[in-house]
Write a structure and sequence with these properties.
Elements: H1 6-13, E1 19-20, E2 32-33, H2 37-51, H3 68-79, H4 85-100, H5 103-116
Parallel strand pairs: 1-2
Helix pairs in contact: 3-4
Length: 117
Amino acid sequence: MGSGSPIDKLVESGTVRLLDWNDSMTDIQLGMRFVDKVQAVSAVRKYSISVGHEYRVLKIANDLEIPVSNIIQEVQVLFQTSCTYKRAWYAQKFAIERVFGSWDTTFSILPKYLQAV
């Protein structure tokens, strides 16, 4: 997928964005990233105080892979439209490759790395 992909267009239009938490924030939004569990718990505590309701951090996911079924549900909630399993799977694959690079790219770098070592 190139720079004109649907995901790139959503990010550019501001429909989808990832925010890094900082201490000046009082609101928690879908897609926020935290440095560690301590920061996540602090953010939830701060948000709980601001809205006057108690929330707790029950689990911090260490696994970066989100189930495809969750992606389908998020598309339905955020965009009020359905999404096929295949399309959600490709979107997940694309997002992982954007963050970590593709297997082909990583494997092609390996001989240069071994030679340098």
